[in-house]
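Q: Structure tokens for this one, please.
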Amino acid sequence: MRFSAISAALVLSIAGSAFAQEYVEFTSQQDRFGATFPTEPKITESMFKSQFGSMLPMRTYTSDSGNSHFKVTVIDYNNIEAIATEKAKTCPPGAETCRGGGSSTGAGYWKADIAGAVHYATWRFMQRDTKITYLGWNNIDLVEGTMLYMTNNADKSRTSAGIYMHENKLYILEGTVPAGYPEPGFFQQSVRWLDENGNGIRYQTLYHNGFPKPPTGRGAPAPGQGQGQGQGAGQPR
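A: Here is the predicted structure, written as tokens:
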């Protein structure tokens, strides 16, 4: 559902302890997204090991407010064909499980890695010491993805997460708040996509990574106005 600037501010004020009174409308031109953080996020760079063993560049944006934690992780799959093909050169002769299989999976399984990136990120969440209370399809400005709600078993804190693949970059959105706080779903709903000029993007039809991009609609979302799918059947209310 779309947040207006007023409703976004209202949600943030209701969240109170989760977000500071002065929140930050942050944009990353490098990773082409925007999001509402409680504080200016800290940015770190590292490497991510994909499902089939390719090492990919990863950038993490983290912001904390008290005992609440918000994070956007961006993993760049754009060069995975070259990375996986080079890795496959060191595989033992005949080791298909390392080398990959031509048109179906690609050398070093690069095609399978891209196609399964959202599934793999979802599986990694499911390995945590948490109870999954909701898992389902979602979209942000018609970029399809997966949304999860979790209750962490150790301290009963709650996490809202979203996973999206856009232009061969994997975006993992994650907000965690202490037990008893409002659900932090507003964080991932504040996320928006940017074009090469820093303008907001909203597609006219569903965007599926790897397929031709649909046209963008009129009036891209303003800061704080990313549009998710809203609450679906079974989603926490």
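A few notes: The helical segments are 5-15, 80-88, 96-99, 102-105, 110-115, 117-126, 185-189. The mean pLDDT is 85.
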